[in-house]
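For the sake of clarity, the format in which proteins appear in this thesis is described at this point. Each number in the token line that follows is a code from a learned vocabulary of backbone shapes. One such record is shown here in full, so that the layout can be seen directly:
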Amino acid sequence: MLYFFLGLAQVWDMMTGVNNEIISYSKHYRFTLYLTLLLAGLNVIGNFLSLLTCMAWQALHLPPVYPCFCSMLIKLIFIQVKFGFHPFTSRIIPVVGFCMGLVVCQNVARCKQSCSQFVL
């Protein structure tokens, strides 16, 4: 499960990787530095909170994944607002839908498996 979410974060990073280059070569290059520092802080806080709350072993992989998704989403919104264009087209919608379907199917299968253990 850990590798799945880290892989999903990596795919999201590859899809939005050009955003980092667009921001780095513009006059807003400092924004990337500030966002990276924010990402590091969120990662440390998330790891600390997950250890404090004694989350299940399956949930310990989520703290490093959430800030990665959030930072890419923030960069996407930043480019939309500051530069006035959106790097994605409508052709990406089926790909995102397929990936979300895989996540939902995996979670439903995992839930059925864990629920059947309680019944037995």
